[in-house]
Amino acid sequence: MKFFSLFAFSAFLLCGCGGSGRPSLVVVTGKVTLDGKPLEGASIAMKFVSDDPDNKYGRPSRAVSDSSGQFKPAAYGDAEGIPTGKYKVAIYKQEIPEGYNAEDPAANPVNIKWITPRYYSDIDTSGIEIEVTSDGITPETIALQSNGSVEVQNTGQTVDPNAP
Fold first, then answer.
1. What is the pLDDT of residues 88-106, one digit of tens each?
2. Residue 8, SS3?
3. How crowded is the C-beta side of 32, counted as CA atoms within 13 Å?
4. Is the sign of the CA dihedral 102, 103, 105, 107 positive or negative?
5. In the chain, what are the domains?
6. Residue 112 contacts residue 121 (beta carbons within 8 Å)
7. pLDDT score, position 56
């Protein structure tokens, strides 16, 4: 009986812990579009928003959209899903030419094309917020709009032909 009581108490303590001190996770799917078309290969970053200063589960979540614009965010590399709650979101897609060296951008300057407008790439300026519940993501589709032009960003140092 003593063993059973200890076992029951241990099970009670572990119940609802989401594993390794993690919160409970829900597996959800969202969709991202650009100008009404599915956006493939977009990087999606999500920042948990909480009014609770003691919240210790404010882990960022990430995803990449597939050919239909669908994405499945994950907060922990070894487990699918994210905690329920509100999130601020950043989304971006770039075309990076071959030869770009992210560790030393000055080594070979290139022009990177921003497929999505650049302001969507910053969680604080994107204006995108979602809510995750056990029923899914609201809104189900994150609809991005472009202004019709593609921004080009030059990386590395540029050489001034008039410099001594």
1. 999 999 887 777 777 776 7
2. helix
3. 27
4. negative
5. 22-92+119-146 (2.60.40)
6. no
7. 65
